[in-house]
Amino acid sequence: MQLAIIGAKGRMGQMLIAGAKADPVLQVVAAVDIGDNLAQAVAGSDVVIEFALHEATLPVAKLAAQHRKPLVIGTTGHTDAEKQAIREVLQPVPCVWTSNFSTGVNLLFWLSGQVAKLVPGWECEIVETHHTAKKDAPSGTAKTLQEIIRQARGRDVPAHALRIGDVVGDHTVIFGTAGERVELTHRAGSRETFARGALRAAKWVARQKPGLYDMQDVLGLK
Description:
By secondary structure, the protein is of the alpha/beta class. Helices cover 41% and strands 25% of the residues. The chain is built from 8 helices and 10 strands.
């Protein structure tokens, strides 16, 4: 399977390239960044993986739709308007679009939704911690947790963002009531887990019909 990686110079881009080299099924045929010939990269691939800046996602999505190439989006920080425009453009192709490709984080998503339904009267808050270079706050993963819990109980929950040192990514969902609390925590020790998940998603999305999917679809949690 031939991959085009958009955002190749970034941390995740480098992890994806290394992970693909170690996989006999995968071959990186284009490793590019914004300003390079994106159209050529997309056209020559079987699947496109995009981990770039949020303003790059829509142009990449347009090219993927134009060339009918399955797409994996890992970029976060999009505005609501950007998200809507991207969804509309992607209708002709299958796309996995998620804020986090980690298997453990997606278990956290699922568990948080289940707990939110089981204890609807408990208070709930989210705390996330990342390295100081991370630009968006709260993280895309924290926003996904907010949306999952909002759908489960019909009201918003606050998310608190910490930026400390070189933390790869910690997320905790706290449910509490008088006398007790439940804390669900995921800690990422390496970006390799995200790269493995994104490459797994690329293999999966290549076999799907047009539509918008997330990592829980890939993992069979839906």
